[in-house]
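User: Is it possible to get a 3D structure for a protein together with its bound compound? The compound here is phosphoenolpyruvate. I've pasted both below.
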Amino acid sequence: MTRRLLIAGNWKMNLSLTASIELAEGLKKVAAGINNLDIAVCPPSIYVQPVAAVLKGSNIGVGAQNVYFEQEGAFTGEISVGMLKDVGCQYVILGHSERRHILGESSELVNLKTHAALAAGLIPIVCVGELLKERETGTTEQVIQRQIDGSFSGVSAEDIRKCVIAYEPVWAIGTGKVATPDQAEDVHVAIRKMIEKNYNKEVAEIVRIQYGGSVNDKNAKEILAKPNVDGALVGGASLKVDPFLGIIKSV
Ligand code: PEP
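Assistant: Yes, that's possible. Here is the predicted structure of the complex:
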């Protein structure tokens, strides 16, 4: 089974409007003609529209870093899946650890957002991952099982094929402490087994599982060579053209 890899950049709350457009223009130029994988960037929501305008017709997709599950109404500060579609979004990151741990987002909320994203035709990139103390106490798989069960509750076998799961050990995000390729592969295999248990083997073989956590142009090749690692969700190293291109080229 060959799954198409996805390298996605999570720009988080970084860059100005000018810098976002320059980065998108730079990436569009250097990534032109690369078609052996999927590429996406996820700017801050307010820059999604101008970045999508730059990348229109290119081989780089655009995603948001969050969305609300309601269609419209009195939800001050939130944006809907329809609004994201309107401005050219194809992906949306859901349940990133910074949202789970800083903003208190639960798997139940991630689940509502996952359903809303799928119904709108957005590809959800659903993040899961353990804290350092959870890894140290040997509860990584239990934690991830809970996040997977909660985040995908009620999602059909047909729909979960369209989702991307990002395994992001919290201790590796923005810390420079990347998981070893074997540590990543072990958890990816475990996640695939969870999907098989909740759905079936065929679906488990189709669903893409990215790794995220301090991926850069130097360590990407070894991690991405693992058979169950289907791409990377990249934070810091996605903020400049050269390191992000280096990761893309290491596929
Ligand atoms: C992320 O934000 O999803 C991430 C993995 O960040 P970094 O690559 O900076 O660790």
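The chain has one domain: 6-250. The CA atoms of residues 59 and 85 lie 18 Å apart.
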